[in-house]
Specification:
It contains 5 helices and 13 strands. It is of the alpha+beta class.
């Protein structure tokens, strides 16, 4: 009965889609996704604090685990001091939970909204390598949750439906999103709950410039406040190999985050930039 019901829903969606152009269909799917993520509450989310476990993998085997607290603060595009850089500030507190943030022993990464980033340890603050900053920029700008929160009104951003399919036995709508610089990300949206399930894009390896396929899979959505939905399980793959899994334990939004959280700690030695 369940299989029949899923097939019936998928068939109904496909029949309705015949009356739409590819652009109209894609726009509908995007609008439904925004509504499913929380609508206006999602679009006006100011910040987010995520705590959880991150597992790094190599050759599809777990190679390390850490408990991280990640702080994200959304900026207005006018507040981002470098054109084309993500309008967001992020601090990753490695190996610590929010209640331990003031401990002097720290190993943090801070991405600022001005095109710079630093690794902060007890030794000092080291500017991140250009390759790291480029990967952060690419990964953030093509992340579907960032696109839906920050880029929907962007000049030159287009949406094209690539039809429907199944992903992990779930009927999905596939939308290709392309920006003015011809950067593309393809996103699979669940036809039943309208939420993003999978995204993929291609980029060049910063070292040998080979083509890399970057895939993210989202799961275990929960309401994190005010109807805003967020995935508590994310898996990242590169060229078909699992490289990172994140399992969140707690997510809070619209917290009282001080500007100092995203500023360089005072009194730290400035170290040479990573190559």
């Amino acid at each position: 009965m369940k299989i029949f019901w899923v097939a019936l829903v998928a068939g109904g969606m496909a029949a309705a889609a015949h009356a739409e152009t590819n652009e109209q269909r894609a726009k509908r799917v995007i609008d439904e996704a925004v509504a499913a993520l929380g609508g206006q509450a999602y679009l006006t989310m100011q910040n987010r604090v995520e705590t959880g476990r991150i597992y790094a993998s190599y050759n599809n085997k777990v190679s390390g685990m850490a408990t991280d607290a990640t702080y994200t603060h959304y900026l207005r595009p006018s507040e981002s001091k470098e054109s084309g850089f993500p309008a967001v500030r992020i601090r990753e507190a490695r190996g610590r939970k929010p209640e331990d943030l003031e401990l002097k022993k720290q190993d943090d990464v801070i991405f600022l909204g001005d095109g710079t980033g630093y690794e902060v340890t007890f030794r000092g603050a080291r500017p991140l390598a250009d390759t790291v900053l480029q990967q952060y920029k690419t990964g953030t700008l093509r992340n579907i949750f960032y696109i839906l929160r920050q880029r929907l009104g962007e000049t030159g951003l287009t949406f094209e439906s690539k039809g429907s399919d199944f992903f992990e036995n779930r009927p999905v709508e596939i939308v290709e999103i392309t920006d003015a610089e011809n950067n593309t990300v393809t996103v699979f949206f669940d036809q039943l709950n309208k939420l993003p399930l999978r995204q993929l894009y291609y980029q060049k390896d910063p070292i040998d410039h080979s083509k890399q396929e970057e895939v993210s899979i989202f799961n275990k959505y929960r309401d994190v406040g005010g109807g805003v939905m967020w995935p508590f399980a994310t898996q990242r793959q590169r060229n078909g190999e699992k490289i990172r899994e994140t399992y969140l334990e707690k997510v809070e939004i619209n917290q009282d985050l001080k500007d100092s959280l995203f500023a360089m700690p005072t009194g730290l030695k400035l170290l040479p930039k990573d190559k």
